[in-house]
Amino acid sequence: MIIALAGRRIDAPGAEVTRFPLQNVRLVQKRIRELFVDLDAEVLVSSAACGADLVAIGEADRLEMSYRIILPFEAGHFRSSSVTDRPGEWGNLYDGFLEKAEQRGDLVVLTKQNEDADAYAASNLAILEDALTLGKERKREVCAVLVWDAKRRAPDDVTALFGEQAREKGITLMEIETL
After folding, report:
1. Would you say domain 2-177 falls under CATH 3.40.50.450?
2. Is 88 exposed, middle or buried (0-12, 13-18, 19+ CB in 10 A)?
């Protein structure tokens, strides 16, 4: 199975709504690992933000699965805007996983420009398309996994959009709750 994954980042300090609290990381790790094992997953395609992405990459690494990382823009800026800006020790994980992915040729940076309103949505679409391409090449099924609180936060919720894009592409969608 080829897994395309997106999900919530760890909640910011003082967040008004709880979506993925830091104390739930181990629970989400367990849920992701069980899903990967149950699906006999062989490749993960995701971004590398703190929270769902890095937790999933960590589990893929522990299971010795391949993983491909797709970033919407330059890695250093992504690190500061989507990795180290939340509680937890995410920076070193990000650096290590990016280095491994880059050495294998499995790091994709969509643009060298800094983020814009559509950068994250574009990277989610690229994750799905890349997983579909890998599925065809390897003659494997593709499954999209949405790691979230199961609630759209706003009309422009990029995490919810990932699920919608997967359905539109006819990809089986599975959800893992962060709460």
Report:
1. yes
2. middle
Cα distances (Å, whole numbers) of residue 111 to 6, 38, 56, 73: 19, 35, 23, 5
> Whole-model pTM?
0.96
Strand partners for 175: 146
Sheet containing 172-177, strands listed edge to edge, beginning at the edge strand earlier in sequence: 107-109, 66-71, 43-46, 2-7, 142-148, 172-177
Beta bridge partners of 107: 69
CA-nearest of 54, 76, 80 to 67 is 54
79-135 residue pLDDT tens = 999 999 999 999 999 999 999 999 999 999 998 666 666 899 999 999 999 999 999
Domain ranges of the chain: 2-177
Helix (H) or strand (E) holding 6: strand 2-7
